[in-house]
Design goal:
With about 325 residues, this protein is mainly alpha-helical. Helix content is about 55%, strand content about 5%. It has a three-stranded antiparallel sheet with strand order 1-2-3. The longest helix is centred in the first third of the chain and has 20 residues.
Length: about 325
């Protein structure tokens, strides 16, 4: 190559607004963009069981509608159209809100797919269509604290009806004392019981963990339940009389039965999560926000209140004191 050739090349680059360095820093070729049918199983295998359980049905719908399409094909408008289709065809329930939850979960499931696609270098963040579609605004929850007299009715019916009153009473007491979520109760193992200090190790959504105080009475019944139903030390604690681990279906059957005996339970769609509201409302009213937050196991710091709790975080001893007052039983940490 002659000097004249180099001068001609430099002149051409200058006219194009480029420099030799720009050619050296040119981005590498992207890997081929997969279809939804190809990519969904990959993401499904990389997420936690909880994420897979929440998004799995929505990924199936995406695969049904767009399985043959590449990830970079759909536009934000097409995503909005799919959201409306899912909302319209959502399974109708008595507490349904026009499919808003289904629409929200579909967008979240898409964002999860595209977030992994960004990490894999398959698309640019600026080209992510799921982030350009807003989730439906959440409506205020209709859940609230259950009155003491109503809670007593629930416990009485659970303890006097059904094919396993001991199991159902234990479930209700566990949720009432700890304010744990359903997933936390189902994940509880015999090895998660600290019998000396009356603590249980809860593993809940978002892979959060915490030691939660319980009353001596509840600890005794949890131990007896595990022993009598032959729960392995590292296996699920809550079990049927024949030793099989319970599932979420036990909760469904329990609240259906309670609704059959207590019409107001069915009318208001009372569920296990109402017990969490009930306990945390009582703790907040009697012991303040910081202790209620610790009691609930909240750890997020996405708002001003969350930032403030860096300085006013409650101790496990304060949580134990609230529990002792709630149950009327002394606790070793209180």
């Amino acid at each position: 190559m002659t000097t004249a050739d180099l001068d001609a090349a430099r002149l051409l680059l200058a006219r194009m607004g480029l420099s030799p360095e720009d050619l050296l820093s040119a981005p590498a070729a992207r890997p081929p963009v997969p279809t939804f049918h190809e990519y969904i199983p990959i993401v499904s295998g990389a997420v936690t069981d909880g994420t897979r359980r929440v998004y799995g049905s929505y990924w199936n719908r995406i695969d049904t509608h767009w399985g043959h399409r590449r990830l970079d094909d759909p536009t934000p408008l097409e995503i909005k159209q799919l959201v409306e289709h899912v909302k319209t065809n959502a399974v109708p329930r008595r507490n349904a809100r026009g499919g808003r939850s289904a629409g929200e979960h579909l967008i979240a499931a898409l964002r999860c797919l595209y977030r992994h696609a960004e990490d894999d270098g398959l698309i640019d963040p600026a080209d992510n269509p799921a982030t350009k579609v807003a989730k439906p605004r959440r409506l205020p929850s209709t859940r609230r604290a259950v009155a003491d007299t109503r809670l007593a009715e629930i416990n009485h019916v659970a303890a006097t009806t059904g094919n396993d009153p001991a199991l159902d009473s234990l479930i209700l007491r566990l949720h009432t004392e700890t304010a744990c979520r359903r997933g936390g109760a189902l994940a509880l193992r015999p090895q998660d019981l600290d019998r000396d200090q009356c603590l249980v190790f809860l593993r809940e959504k978002g892979e959060t963990v915490r030691w939660q105080p319980v009353s001596p009475t509840l600890m005794t019944h949890l131990q007896q339940h595990a022993d009598q139903r032959h729960a392995p030390r590292d296996g699920q604690l809550l079990r049927y009389a024949d030793g099989r681990p319970i599932t979420t279906r036990r909760y469904d059957h329990l609240w259906t039965r309670l609704g059959n005996h207590l019409p107001w339970v069915a009318t208001q769609q009372i569920s296990t999560h109402w017990l969490r509201h009930t306990t945390l409302t009582w703790v907040e009213r009697n012991f303040g926000y910081a202790i209620a937050r610790a009691y609930a196991g909240h750890t997020d710091h996405n708002n001003d209140a969350g930032t403030t709790t860096t300085y006013v975080r409650a101790s496990i001893q304060e949580v134990a004191a609230a529990l002792a007052t709630l149950t009327g039983e002394p606790h070793s940490l209180a």
